[in-house]
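Narrative of accomplishments. A recurring question from our advisory board has been how the design workflow behaves on a single, concrete structure rather than in aggregate. To address it, we present the structure tokens for one chain from the evaluation set, followed by the sequence designed for it. No filtering or post-editing was applied between the two.
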């Protein structure tokens, strides 16, 4: 990865065969209504990061 304008904002990360599990957070206003696609992504993220030791992605049935 290159740095924009010569800044040190980005660092080069070596590629590994097994990357650590990343943690993500989604934040939005209480008055914001999630669209179906965004709600599906949130549900998939909840399922995948549920902490039950299930680290292999399994597709969910999405009801639209």
């Amino acid at each position: 990865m290159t740095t924009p304008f010569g800044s040190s904002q980005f660092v080069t990360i070596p590629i590994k065969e097994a990357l650590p599990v990343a943690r993500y957070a989604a934040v939005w206003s209480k008055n914001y209504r999630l669209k179906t696609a965004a709600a599906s992504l949130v549900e998939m993220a909840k399922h995948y990061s549920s902490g039950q030791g299930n680290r292999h992605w399994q597709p969910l049935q999405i009801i639209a």
